[in-house]
Amino acid sequence: MSNSVSDVFLSFQEHLDGEQDIREEIRLAVREIEQTARGILTLLQAIHQQTGINTIPEVCQKSKVQFATIKDQYQLLKSKVPEGQYYRFHDHWRFVTQRLCFLAALTIYLEEERLVQREQVADLLGVCIEQDKGFHLDLDDYLSGLLMLADELSRFAVNSVTAGNYSWPMKISKFVTEMNLGFRLLNLKNDSLRKKFDALKYDLKKVEEVVYDLSIRGLKPSGDADLMPKSG
Q1: Can you tell me the mean pLDDT for 195-199?
Q2: In 3D, which of 155, 160, 154, 161 has the Cα closest to residue 175?
Q3: Residue 187 burial by CB count (10 A; 0-12/13-18/19+): exposed, middle or buried?
Q4: Which positions are annotated as binding Mg(2+) (predicted)?
Q5: 31 Cα distance to chain centroid
Q6: Which CATH number is 10-137's, of 3.40.50.1860, 3.40.50.720, 3.90.550.10, 1.20.58.190?
Q7: What is the per-residue pLDDT for 226?
Q8: What is the phi/psi pair of residue 117, to 5°?
Q9: pLDDT digit string, tens, across residues 203-225
Q10: Among 59, 119, 142, 186, whose Cα sits 20 to 30 Å from the Cα of 103?
Q11: Per-residue pLDDT for 66 more than 70?
């Protein structure tokens, strides 16, 4: 009887050891992704420098090159995750994926002045968006990345004025206003997402203050009246 009980618990230990090995392999794969993500972030931070606005096309191109590496690294990560157990291990790559959604969104906005689609971010990462296909880009991770974008753009609006560029704040104001309206259409049940959305109104207020300051100082670029956010 005692041998039977021991055998049962030994089998438990084998299972625990096997799961620990999987988690360690996932952690190593995620660590490589995090390192590349830090490199992309460092590249994009150049836009906040005094002459950074002039380097936006070059910076965005370099960012996209790094996303090619990210795609390969996600392929390796996918190979480490057992089939059907995506959400069991999701916490390991949740934050870095949100960070990469933000970096992809920032790259596309700076380059094309539009909101990046979830499908496009998934393509940059080399994953799908369909949950039933296994390893995918979780919707909450994508939305979290967009909210991080709003925070970064509010900072960029301020630094653009410091650099003597008054057009970017006008465009950012319109974009963040539209993002805010879009998020208000969603019934956010994720606590973390709701908290990040609560911060969006402060990002919007920060940008609006920049635009207002430009307006009263007579520095608003001509022809940008249509970029002014409509109140109400």
Answers
A1: 90
A2: 154
A3: exposed
A4: 152
A5: 17
A6: 1.20.58.190
A7: 44
A8: -85, 155
A9: 999 999 999 999 998 887 765 54
A10: 186
A11: yes
The per-residue b/e assignment along 96-105, b for 16 or more CB within 10 angstroms, e otherwise, is bbbbbbbbbb
Q: How confident is the model at residue 188 (pLDDT cuts 50, 70, 90)?
A: confident
Q: pLDDT at position 114, please?
A: 96
> In the predicted model, what is the mean pLDDT of residues 136-162?
96
Q: What's the CA gap between 69 and 86, in Å, rounded?
A: 22
Q: How many residues does the chain have?
A: 232
The answer to whether 112 is annotated as binding is: no
pTM: 0.87
- Residue 45 CA to residue 152 CA, distance in Å, equals 10
Q: What is the DSSP letter of 128?
A: B
The helix/strand/coil state of 70 is: helix
Question: Interior CA angle at 104 toward 100 and 108, to 5°?
Answer: 170
* Residue pair 46/156 in contact by the 8 Å Cβ criterion: no
Q: Measured between alpha carbons, how far is 98 from 125 in angstroms, rounded to an integer?
A: 11
Homologous superfamily, domain 140-219:
Translin; domain 2 (1.20.58.200)
Would you list the domain boundaries of the chain? 10-137, 140-219
Mind listing the pLDDT tens digit for each residue in 89-104? Answer: 999 999 999 999 999 9
Q: Give me the phi and psi of 136, to 5 degrees please.
A: -145, 175
Token pair recorded at residue 164: 């003597």
Residue showing tokens 């625990």: 16
